[in-house]
Recover the amino acids of this structure.
């Protein structure tokens, strides 16, 4: 895609002039519609870096506790998670050179795979708003906007919120009136119905924790599900334990989640994990007027205390 | 026994007969992907699938298995006695297992049943199973079975192998168990030599269609310590999220953890799938963790599959080339590339 050359050019320059020690970006995958996060330390090897509509993982995930000076490629959501990391002292702003990518949304590989049924995409080419998918005996020209990840379809912050360079002109932000209409559908359910909905949602969960591990917010040295002394949660696929994991994980992300969608992209059994976190994102927006990662100055709403808080219960 | 023919329109009838004697599992598409489930309506069986998302290993080795139960209530006669709960070993048929997954069961079997140990649950379930495989006439570009002692029509581990030949299936009994099953199901019509020829052609075509190849020839002669200390592991591991996707989808990953779960005075001893990707997997009671770093865990997965297993059992690598980890690793860590690195450098 058009951003690739610019990413390489910037990366080469900041490695050569020692602004940074390494670059964290994406390289082209070994399959169509896949990319792999990669580090590049040598200015002569920046040609590995690559950008297309399938750079779906959140690179902020690779930052916590790193000591080096890092150039990092960041789309809107990645930049917000970088901001969250800075606020939560996981990395320092001075360590980073953020190569911002104005993002038009990532295309959901699984939506395309699902469309193809038992056919396989052998080649996928992007051109001007279209995704051309070729395979044995077929060729589809798909409108990319119809196959975006669910989170990208509702994203209101496609441009990087912090950056040191941009690889292209800023894109127009969406202005849909209500990015949370899907959450309202769940809110309107009765409590029994909600319970059934969420039980069904996690029915196939394998407890592999891909959702957690793909999430930049989940950097605890030991996650509560991995504590063994004492052990907080059972390790089987008993629905109570599985639900405990999902619900607690979601609450731990409250007010911090940028809805980057990495959790859903990583899930091996297609669980719509964002159904948990999005309600919390909506509540935090409704209650505190706050969205995660928009600033490196402000503490997250659930992480602040003021003696003059207007709510009496907390004073 | 000569090869038999099953007309596709007769398949529901064959399944119906089997259902009377066996618990029958078939691939079922649910929530967007295939998984093996108990056959409900034989008229709705859909064998037009690539493969199941998760491997069928869970039929023998469930993700969570209640091994024992016990009571801590001293008023109970059996207090503190660990007892095996009743288990279901009903005769079971799996229809449509892919040859790679059947081969995988053979690879895992050496771990669960060997001169030192015998896992009773694995062994008894394997005995109760009859596997009807379905050859892959359209292998994917990520399949590399032919490089790892397997193939799209590999027979090892199967009792019957089906060839999908348009209007018919050709059924080849591989074992006596398979022959008996076909007999029971009333499959008696011999395949014509023409059908037999079609089957061979389909097999040859499929083998040719495998475009992924991995090198394995030098793995055996390499020193484990040299591979362990190889310089490429940091690069292989960088993107890894240490999620357990690869290990949980893999047909040959068998590692588990045993836990006691006690509720009031009743307890269960449960065996759960575990994963070398998880730090907790190797955490010692002392607090020391021999694989505390991500790179160590990633290395372990590949070393176990492609070197330790090979060295220990002289049974090839512990990989059947099904491509699940290639397709579902969220960060595209491609085992085919690791084969190359380990074999070539």
């Amino acid at each position: 895609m058009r951003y690739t050359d610019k990413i390489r050019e910037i990366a080469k320059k900041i490695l050569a002039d020692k602004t940074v020690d390494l670059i964290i970006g994406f390289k082209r995958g070994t399959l169509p519609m896949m990319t792999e996060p990669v580090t590049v330390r040598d200015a002569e090897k920046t040609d590995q870096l690559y950008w297309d509509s399938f750079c779906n993982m959140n690179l902020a995930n690779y930052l916590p506790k790193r000591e080096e000076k890092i150039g990092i490629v960041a789309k809107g959501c990645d930049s917000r998670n970088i901001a969250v990391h800075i606020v939560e002292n996981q990395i320092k702003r001075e360590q980073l050179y953020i190569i911002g990518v104005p993002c038009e949304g990532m295309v959901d590989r699984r939506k395309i795979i699902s469309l193809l049924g038992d056919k396989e995409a052998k080649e996928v080419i992007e051109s001007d708003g279209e995704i051309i998918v070729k395979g044995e005996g077929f060729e589809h020209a798909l409108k990319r906007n119809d196959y975006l990840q669910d989170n990208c379809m509702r994203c209101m912050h496609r441009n990087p919120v912090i950056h040191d360079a941009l690889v292209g002109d800023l894109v127009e932000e969406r202005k849909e009136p209500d990015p949370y209409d899907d959450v309202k559908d769940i809110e309107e359910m009765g409590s029994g119905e909600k319970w059934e909905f969420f039980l069904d949602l996690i029915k196939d969960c394998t407890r592999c924790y891909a959702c957690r591990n793909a999430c930049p917010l989940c950097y605890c040295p030991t996650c509560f599900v991995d504590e063994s002394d004492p052990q907080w949660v059972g390790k089987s696929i008993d629905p109570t334990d599985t639900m405990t994991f999902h619900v607690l994980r979601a609450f731990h992300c409250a007010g911090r989640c940028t809805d980057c969608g990495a959790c859903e992209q990583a899930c091996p059994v297609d669980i719509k994990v964002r159904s948990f976190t999005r309600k919390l994102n909506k509540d935090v927006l409704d209650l505190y007027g706050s969205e995660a990662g928009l600033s490196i100055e402000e503490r997250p709403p659930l992480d602040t205390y003021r003696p003059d808080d207007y709510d009496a219960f907390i004073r | 026994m000569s090869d038999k023919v099953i007309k596709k329109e007769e398949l529901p009838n064959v399944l119906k007969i089997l259902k009377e004697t066996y618990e029958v599992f078939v691939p079922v598409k649910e929530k967007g992907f295939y998984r093996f489930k108990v056959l409900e309506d034989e008229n709705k069986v859909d064998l037009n699938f690539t493969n199941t998302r998760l491997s069928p290993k869970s039929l023998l080795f469930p993700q969570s298995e209640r091994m024992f139960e016990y009571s801590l209530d001293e008023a109970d006669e059996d207090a503190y006695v660990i007892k095996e709960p009743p288990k279901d070993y009903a005769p079971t048929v799996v229809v449509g297992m892919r040859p790679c997954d059947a081969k995988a069961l053979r690879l895992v079997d050496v771990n669960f049943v060997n001169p030192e140990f015998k896992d009773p649950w694995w062994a008894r379930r394997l005995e109760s199973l009859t596997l009807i495989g379905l050859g892959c006439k359209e292998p994917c570009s990520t399949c590399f079975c032919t490089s790892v002692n397997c193939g799209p029509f590999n027979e090892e581990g199967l009792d019957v192998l089906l060839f999908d030949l348009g209007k018919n299936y050709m059924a080849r009994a591989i074992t006596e168990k398979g022959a008996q099953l076909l007999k029971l199901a009333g499959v008696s019509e011999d395949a014509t030599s023409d059908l037999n020829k079609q089957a061979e052609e389909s097999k040859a075509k499929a083998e040719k269609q495998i475009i992924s190849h991995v090198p394995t020839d030098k793995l055996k002669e390499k020193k484990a310590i040299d591979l362990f200390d190889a310089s490429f592991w940091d690069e292989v591991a960088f993107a890894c999220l240490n999620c357990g996707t690869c290990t949980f989808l893999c047909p040959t990953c068998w590692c588990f953890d045993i836990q006691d779960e006690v509720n009031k005075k009743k307890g269960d001893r449960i065996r759960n799938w575990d994963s070398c990707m998880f730090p907790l997997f190797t955490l010692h009671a002392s607090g020391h963790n021999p694989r505390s770093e991500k790179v160590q865990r990633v290395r372990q997965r590949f070393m176990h599959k492609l070197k330790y297993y090979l060295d220990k059992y002289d049974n090839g690598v512990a990989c059947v080339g099904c491509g699940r980890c290639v397709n579902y690793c969220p960060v595209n860590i491609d085992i085919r590339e690791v084969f190359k690195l380990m074999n070539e450098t």
Summary: The first strand of chain A starts at residue 22 and ends at 28. The beta strands of chain A are 22-28, 35-40, 70-74, 96-100, 123-127, 130-135, 138-143, 165-166. The first helix of chain A runs from residue 3 to 16. Residues 3-108+148-314 of chain A form one domain.
